[in-house]
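Re: weekly structure request thread

Next one in the queue (294 aa):
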Amino acid sequence: WRLRLRGVPLMLPLLWPAVPRPAPGQFELVAVDVGQGTAVLVRTRAHLLVFDAGPAWGPGSDAGARVLLPLLRARGERRIDRLMLSHRDTDHTGGAGALLAGLPVRGLHTALEPGHPLREAPGGPAHQTCEAGQRWHWDGVDFEVLHPAPGRVGEAPAPPRANTVSCVLRVASPQGSALLTGDIEAAQEAALVQAWGPSLRSDVLLVPHHGSRTSSSEVFLEAVAPRIAVVQAGYRSRYGHPAPAVMRRYGARGIAVVRSDTCGAWTWPAGAHPTLGRCTRGEAPRYWHHRAEP
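Done, posted below.
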């Protein structure tokens, strides 16, 4: 028995198994299925960024508590290194309070105006306002904020509409690149093209404003030229997202479109070509989608 007891420490890793992580220079991107709203995970070797936190559905019911926290815990995530909230609309910030309460968050990066409760929460993480030109580097992966222009958030005397100051983030590494856009509209898309030009080109585009007809302009799609466009919108969206005219613009350019209402969560695996992204509903269909063997 004394010899056997010496083996007990060797069993301890079974209580906390190792979680696979991307190699340096690679990242994993998960566009989460949160219905009518936005939430994206970007995981590098040692860091996690959460871009937007999905919607709130009612008192005590939101995407943070019901979708994101269970997902993060199942993935073995112990903290969020940066929570980026693109703008104040509740389909992007509704789950943020639950995330801030449920996991350690090291940094909050937003386009929320001064005085917003999430930005000013007592004891909350250090806040940084999104401004074009901000950059950081994690584990061989580059992150760059492309919008809004410095000084635009909370601008006096009349703050701009929330959509127009959405944080736009580009993630790039030798693996490829992704452009996360919030709810920008055609005017902001044109400004991005003018300011950044060829630097906008990205393999994966998070379709602006859930595929609204106010966004995904011709000039913007020409500049970004994505291989994959990801629409995060609710099933039978009451807003008509994604708009048929917008989908035709993507189709005319041969851009593959992935929709959360039919795909579920879409995952771009670390180190893989973006066309090898996976749909949750394809890999693990719900029980009523199973077909009996003939």
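The CA atoms of residues 21 and 221 lie 32 Å apart. The mean pLDDT is 92.
Next request, please.
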